[in-house]
Amino acid sequence: MKEKIIVVGGYGQVGKVICEELGQIYPYKVYAAGRNFQKAEQFSIHTEGRVLPLQLDVNEPIEDDFFLDVSMVVMCLDLQNTDFVQACVKHHVDYIDVTADYSVMSKIQQIHPKASTVVLSVGLAPGITNMLVKQGKNQLDQVDTADIYILLGLGESHGRAAIEWTVDNLSAVYSVIEQGSKKQVTSFSDGKKIDFPAGLGRKTAYRFNFSDQHVLPQTLGIPSASTRLCFDSEMMTNAIASLKRTGIVRWLQQPWIREKVINLFEKSQWGSEIYVAKVEVAGRLNGRHVQYQGSVSGEKEFVATGKVAAYVAKNVYAGQYSLGVFHMEQLFQPTDLFADLSNMITFNEKILGE
Questions:
Q1: Where would I find the H helices in 175-233?
Q2: Cβ within 8 Å of residue 99, ≥6 positions away
Q3: What is the DSSP string of 256-323?
Q4: How far apart are CA 205 and CA 145, in angstroms?
Q5: Which positions fall inside the Saccharopine dehydrogenase NADP binding domain (predicted)?
Q6: pLDDT digits (tens, 9 = 90+) for 73-110
């Protein structure tokens, strides 16, 4: 009988949250997996054995019999290719992906499972951001644009993989959809001043290569979508924007400089542990031009990401969902998710111009 839930990267920051949440519901069926068995075993002991340890390298070939009793995999690591995902689908294993790299995500979208449910865009951004945009779309008659803003607290101890992804994308050149056509933009350009909730005030946020802006025109049919990022430390946000303008950020392509910057981010704490996801969805309601504004705020982004992933995983594991590859907003309703997270987030919404 297929009962196992394997969380790859299960002893990392986000993975621990997912394992502990699912381990409470399905004790002794959840496995914290990764290359370091000792770390997995130490975490298992911490959970009093409700979560079990498993050594697994998803970048190496895996025997078919490995999947015989596996029902679901939750992926918390950035993949180099889709080989492991295709192995899961081949063996009728449901797959939940918590990563944010659109280059791999776009390839996973091309897989056609015959007996599996694959859910992408799970976490804060993408994830909560996608659901906020869907909440706005649900309340309008017509949607023209969706602008997404992420504020991250630099006082939080972010996982190394997340820091690496952020640093590597500081100089990214990518395309966004504006009025149905592709437009090339660069990270940390085109700043916009935004009023953030939770007493954070007005801050400048800059374009950043989050996957939600690539996905939402496909899944929700929105003609224009963009995502911008800033930090709770205005000094750090401004410093990065200045480095980008002067071209110094290109030095991050040098491996030794990149390593030093990543180490600096990993060891330093310059702000709070707050995070905010805010969206502005513009369109029409009852014949009038309006703007929906919705936001979710809280502390410890990695906990929010883990809780969202656990919500998706427990629903897919327990329920009957369509077979195929989906993004989170295609299977779930925002009000249900926000209700599930209500003890750890603050959700606000309003419609301007009614």
A1: 212-219
A2: 75, 76, 77, 78, 79, 105
A3: HHHHHHHHHHHH---S-SEEEEEEEEEEEETTEEEEEEEEEEEE-HHHHHHHHHHHHHHHHHHS---S
A4: 17
A5: 5-116
A6: 999 998 889 999 999 999 999 999 998 889 899 999 99
Question: Which positions ≥6 away from 66 have C-beta within 8 Å?
Answer: none
Stretches in the chain below the pLDDT threshold 50: none
Please give the single-letter amino acid code of residue 39: K
What's the rounded Cα separation, in Å, for the pair 32 and 18?
Answer: 9
Q: In sequence order, what E strands does the chain have?
A: 4-8, 30-34, 51-55, 70-75, 94-97, 117-120, 142-152, 173-178, 181-186, 192-196, 201-207, 224-231, 274-285, 288-299, 324-327, 346-352
- Please count the residues of the chain: 354
- Is the peptide bond prior to 223 cis by the omega test (within 30 degrees of 0)? no
- The sign of the CA dihedral 202, 203, 206, 209 is negative
Q: Which helix (H) or strand (E) holds 42?
A: helix 37-46
DSSP 16: H
Task: Please give the domain boundaries of the chain with CATH numbers for all domains.
Answer: 4-120 (3.40.50.720), 125-302+340-352 (3.30.360.10)
Quick one: residue 351, left, alpha or beta (phi over 0 = left, psi -120 to 50 = alpha)? beta
